[in-house]
Design a protein that fits this description.
Blueprint lengths: L8 H4 L10 H17 L17 H4 L20 E2 L4 E3 L10 E4 L5 H7 L1 H8 L15 H4 L4 H8 L9 H9 L2 E9 L10 E8 L5 E5 L7
Antiparallel strand pairs: 1-2, 2-3, 4-5, 5-6
Length: 219
């Protein structure tokens, strides 16, 4: 199970994208389906953009073990991807531009893995690279902004991921919620992204509290 991300056709058909505040509905639903699946001999596994430190984290990461939790994006650390033309990336979902570490036709795979900045960015990421809500989050040093693919595709850079259960719950306690608004379609290239704004609004009144553009600028 994985959330649809703002890339390619999903940008052009943005009605298929989940609004961030709706993870509050999704996570309990997935938890129920997980339990029902176990009763039928089925095991639900989840992708890297599901969860993050909500009440079901022990299910998503540890299959019931409370000691297991999300430990940061695995791109270039425990994951590597190879495109059809030989391009190497840290994760198969990431865009080629900005995340390509080299090509196996030109470099040894071991050299790409060990020395390419495009591959090992995740090994260098720290709290200082986070921004927005994620920068001040209690779990920032462990989580490091959740799934790189999700946040980069949506907001143009990683380190601020609104598709977080803990975040949605925390904002709800404060009477707030987040939603996205598409401003521009994706180009016709592979792994292309569009342009979105992330809006924080008061749940009761609908009044906009803050707005983050794709450039990361808070309006």
């Amino acid at each position: 199970i994985q959330l649809t991300v703002a890339m390619g056709n999903a940008v052009d058909n943005d009605e298929v994208l989940l609004q961030p505040y709706r993870v509050l509905e999704l996570m309990p639903l997935l938890a129920r389906l997980y339990q029902e699946g176990l009763e039928r001999g089925l095991l639900m596994t989840i992708g890297n953009n599901i969860g993050y430190y909500g009440p079901y984290e022990h299910i998503w990461r540890g299959f019931g073990d409370d000691r297991v939790h999300w430990a940061g994006c695995g791109a270039g650390q425990t994951v590597m991807a190879l495109e059809a033309d030989g391009t190497v990336k840290g994760c198969p979902s990431l865009a080629t531009v900005g995340f390509a570490g080299g090509n196996v036709r030109d470099m040894a795979l071991e050299d790409i893995w060990r020395h390419s900045e495009g591959i090992h960015f995740g090994r260098l990421r720290s709290v200082d690279d986070l921004w927005g809500y994620c920068r001040g989050c209690y779990y920032n040093d462990v989580c490091r902004g959740g799934c790189t693919w999700t946040s980069h595709s949506l907001l143009g850079k990683p380190g601020n991921n609104p598709y977080c259960h803990y975040r949605a719950l925390d904002l709800q306690k404060r009477g707030l919620r987040e939603r996205i608004v598409k401003l521009q379609d994706a180009a016709q290239d592979s792994f292309a992204v569009g342009r979105f704004d992330l809006i924080t609004e008061d749940i009761a009144s609908g009044k906009v509290v803050s707005q983050i553009s794709r450039s990361g600028q808070v309006i």
